[in-house]
Amino acid sequence: MKHLLMGLTLALTPLILSWLLTWIAVKFLPKWGLVSVSNDRSSHIGSVPSGGGIAFVIVTVIGLTVLQSMNQIPETLYMAIVGAGGLVAAIGFWDDRGSVTRKVRLLCQFMAAFWLLYWLGNPQVQIFGWIPEIWILVSVVSVLGIIWLINLYNFMDGTDGLATTQAILVLAFAFFVSDHHSWGFLIVPLLALLGFLPHNWPKAKIFMGDVGSGFLGVLLAALLLYSSCLENPILACLTSSEFDIPLWSWVILLSTFWVDATYTLIVKRMNGIGFSKAHNQHLYQKISRGYDSHVKLLLINVTIVVLWLYPLAYLAFLQPYWGFALALLAALPTLILCIWLRAGRP
C-alpha cells in the first residue's frame, strides 16, 4: 500500500505542479506585462493574463529530464523535444512579453524543424502502399510541415481551452494505443496539460500564449516523427517498436485544427488578405460567437474528435495502407462546416 501511494504521488506530481505554477502565473504574469487585451478581433472580453503555457512547458521539461536520468525516454526524443521545444517556447515567451519580428520567429521555427529532423529523421509517408524514397524531397516537406504545425497551434489558440483540450485528446489516443514502455514520455505532458486546463477552461483565467502553443506544436511534431520515422542518413533513427503510430493517425487526430486553419487562410489569401493579418474568421471563432459560448465549442470539438476522428485514427493505426484515404474522410465534417459557415469571410 505504501509503494502504491508513493507511485501514485509521483505519477500525479506533473498535474499538481502544473496547476500550482499556472495559479502563480495568473497572479504574477500581468505584472510582467503579459496580458491579452480584448479588441474587435478577440474572442474574449476584458484583460486576461497570457503566457501561462510557461507552466506546463517547465513541468514537461522537468518531467522528461527526470525520465531521461532514469533511462525511461530515448535520448533522441528527449534531445528533440527539449532542444526544439525550448527554443520555440523561449521565442514565444519573448513574443508574449513584447513583439518579435516575423523573420526572427520564422528563423527560430526553421532551426527547431531542422533540429527535430536531425535527431528523429523523416516520417514514413505511405500512400496506398507507396512510400516516397527521395530523402531530400521528404525532408523539405517535413520541415514545412513542422513549421505549419507550430503555427497551426498558434492560429487555433483563440478561444478558452480549445488548444489545451485538443492536445490532451491527441496525447490520450497515443497513450492508449502505445506500449507501456512509451507511457512515461506521454503521461508527463498529458498530466501537465490537465493541470493547466482548469485555469484555461471557460471562462479562462489565463491563456497559454505563444510560449505554450509553439511548444505544443513542437511536442506533437516530435512525437509524430519519433513514432513514424525513416532512417536519417545523418543520424540513425532509433524509433522503438513499442511506439509505432502511423503518420496518418496523427493527421486524422488533428483534422479539426488543420482543416480549419488551412481553409480559412486560403480563403483569406484568395480575397487579397495577407496570412499574417489578424482576424477572427476561423471556423472555431464563428462557432463560439454563434453559440456565444466557448464551452459549447469545446463540446462540439470533443464530440467530433472522440466519435469521428478516434475511430478513423484507430483504423489507420491498424491498417496503415488505408491511412491516406481515412485522413481525407476524417477532414470532411470540418471542411463542410467551413464551407457552410463561410470560414475566412466576414
Question: Could you walk me through the main structural features you see in this protein, from its secondary elements to its overall organization?
Answer:
With 346 residues, the protein is mostly helical. It has a domain at 18-253. The chain has 13 helices and two strands. It has helices spanning 2-28, 54-69, 75-97, 102-120, 135-155, 162-177, 183-200, 209-227, 247-253, 255-270, 283-291, 294-318, 323-340; strands spanning 35-37, 47-49. A two-stranded antiparallel sheet has the order 1-2. The longest helix has 27 residues, at 2-28. The radius of gyration is 19 Å and the shape is globular. The chain starts with a helix and ends in a 6-residue tail after the last helix. The model is unreliable at 231-241 (pLDDT under 50).
